[in-house]
What we know:
Layout: E1 27-29, H1 32-43, E2 49-52, E3 70-73, E4 92-97, H2 120-126, H3 142-159, E5 160-170, E6 173-175, E7 178-180, H4 182-192, E8 195-204, E9 224-232
Parallel strand pairs: 1-8, 2-3, 2-4, 4-5
Antiparallel strand pairs: 5-9, 6-7, 8-9
Helix pairs in contact: 3-4
Amino acid sequence: METGTDRAANGRKRPDGVATTQVTVSAHIGTNADVFPLILDLHVPPGSRVADVTWGKGAFWRKVRQDGYRVLGTDLQTGVDCRDLPYPDGGLDCVVLDPPYMEGLFRRSETHLAGAGSHAPFRASYSAGQATAPVDGAPRYHEAVIDLYLRAGAEARRVLRNHGVFIVKCQDEVSANRQRLTHVELINAYTADGFYCKDLFVVVRPNRPVVARLLRQEHARKNHSYFLVFIKLDPEHPNRLRAPASRS
């Protein structure tokens, strides 16, 4: 096999590597379970200690090898809040976060919660199905969604080792008839909090959404979501994007 030291007939070095189309791409039509293993293969080494802090039904992991990672699955149903994790500082290689990303799941009355009828499975997966208790000064609607992401992100930064991987699932939304680009808001906020956004994956749902009682459409209906991949930077070396190579 030719290497970087091989030379062509004209005396020039031949570059390492081979031409191929077998590469991981950034956009996929499919489900979270289809895309998530690709993200792990590219960014999380086998054997890593991974905390999925919004485990739900474990949907992300359905196509991941069971012996590939040391997985710690927790969520509100198991009594663990993603904003208050039971792990020591710097003890994890990877954190996976997929909280409710619809402001309709942050309502102060159960009768107003989104995800009724045919969307009940979504509410079961992304919410405890309970109203948000009113707290003076607490954010509401889309700001409540962002607040949850940011508090969970701060906790992920605490429990991750330097150069650990933070995988975040999110989706943009329209709230109060305003376009809210959640993925942009999170990238900006997490970057300011000591993370580097290393990658972004787009997941396009394979079927078309159905809208009941449509009178007038103001915005394009969202049929895609995102996996954002962040690296926790070493605060002493914030420009170093990966851990130094072992000298053993």
